[in-house]
């Protein structure tokens, strides 16, 4: 006999009261993979992977709840709406229980199961949530937990195996004075519901020893689904078959006078006389599998594996309405690219060892503020798999190129003309397939890191071949450059994203050979920056990313730390290049910035600060010289839905920073924008600054190194700074000491050489 005593400790309960409109962040989540649904009289609640959304069946209003609102789900496995308490109860694969209060939007994180050390991590999954008499009964992979919906505290835990051991419980119900539990390998077990000692395993007995998958109480009857793919009702002495579905039942539920059960290709709705009302086998023009379904009045709602939530009518289940909120096709986004009018997202990926298998066959998504999300379906992508990076042609806004780490290079023109380049149509100097002795006829063209130079040439890498550097010229001709005798075993090497500096030097991160620097304009000159003293001083030859900052320094992220090359110009006159660590003081101790950390991405913002993604540790914003950490965003302290940030992208015009993670895409509204060409478009916001405003005043549209002075109406200086990038902030304080009084303040802006000036005004109202 065991009991989880920690379930009564309030210390394990956290409350997040996030604003429903977090002004600094935006979320771009996929709502397509429906894990479970619940219902109320006038609403349906759907739970995708790590978010929740609802639809009001009367007003048709859609409402989403995600990490921007404070919902920090892991992988959702069960959802239940309590009509009595107006709360959404959300169970997760790792045992986390989330409670959303619909009245005020607050979110309760109950981490008792998650933090219980005596239960193995792989046995904490919450499979189902059943409400009875103000209690939520959680069917878990170890037993049953009771959660009081009034006090929001855990009560008893039932380990109901024949010898008191942990057993997997799929679903529970209360019927005729007994609590029933469907288990994985011990059939249906039950106990007297009024028994005050249900924590004693001996009070539980075998009701049926068959193999069952679900159980509900419906119209004073006990209904159960069996692993033999049939649904039964109990007549008081034995189970009688209602219907043989022919597929495993993945969801069994009852609501009001409706019985609903779902398999991968079937949804059945029965009335209170167990007469079939509807049978759904497909959604027209939608290829997917069903995961769950429910019925509210005369409406049916069907959750799918990857296409969202659909609504139809019980009397005519042929017309379907897509009820899914707008979002990308899936949450695990490998790369995002911001264009002037769109944000592009691709989902193909490879492992840390650059292995693209299993191959991905995904669509391409793109987002605009005006139209939301739309898609280029996989059927239109010429069979290209594992799409990894997107680049926009700066000389032709109608052209987008997407690299495939298996199929070559895609060109998308005017949204509908799609061409796939591979070894068959790029000539002898073009793309190449790696040689696989086990499959000599296989095509495996691993292209990555495409980038345009100033002349309109598109450069890219072709992994696992000798001639690994490729360029497609504006006239469509191809050229290759060999790494044979330059790097070690190029046929075993792979490459991340290329960057090109002002001198047209290509800087290429490699898996096995550090950074490869190449410039065809200097006699095809190569320099390798590798690990070890006198070879480049990298901490690891596995380089994941490179970035060139506004001072022409090369920042290098490796699998084991950070290095900086002081100037990319050194490539022009040196034969070897040495990098340096950044030394910072932490608690008065000198240490290396990001020592031994796996750096996945580095992006430079308009103020020359660096956004750095650390494997499993979220995203950092460090100052231009790396000496100061300005932000460190994690899942725990921000709306990031995961600490695995796969890609970072910045909108240079607005400063918005996009974080693509393995569990969703979010953005942070930064203020570091690219510098303008002149001062003609300077603007100040907000203006006026009203008493209720608590943020900072932004002055945007600046040129780089502009001098900005702010004075009161009498000419007294209250703030002065020099711009780095296109935007500065003012905290409305006089040199950071005290807030300035109400009044009009003059903003005097001058270029570095004084040849260009601008004057703006801002009104402060206290």
From TrEMBL:
Lineage: superkingdom: Bacteria
Pfam families recorded: Por_Secre_tail (PF18962), PorZ_N_b_propeller (PF21544), Reg_prop (PF07494)
Domain PorZ N-terminal beta-propeller: 44-205
InterPro entries from the UniProt entry: PorZ_N, Quinoprotein_ADH-like_sf, Reg_prop, Secre_tail, WD40/YVTN_repeat-like_dom_sf
Domain spans labelled Secretion system C-terminal sorting: 684-764
Keyword annotations: Signal
Protein known as: ABC transporter substrate-binding protein
Species this protein is from: Flavobacterium enshiense DK69
Classification of source organism: Bacteria, Pseudomonadati, Bacteroidota, Flavobacteriia, Flavobacteriales
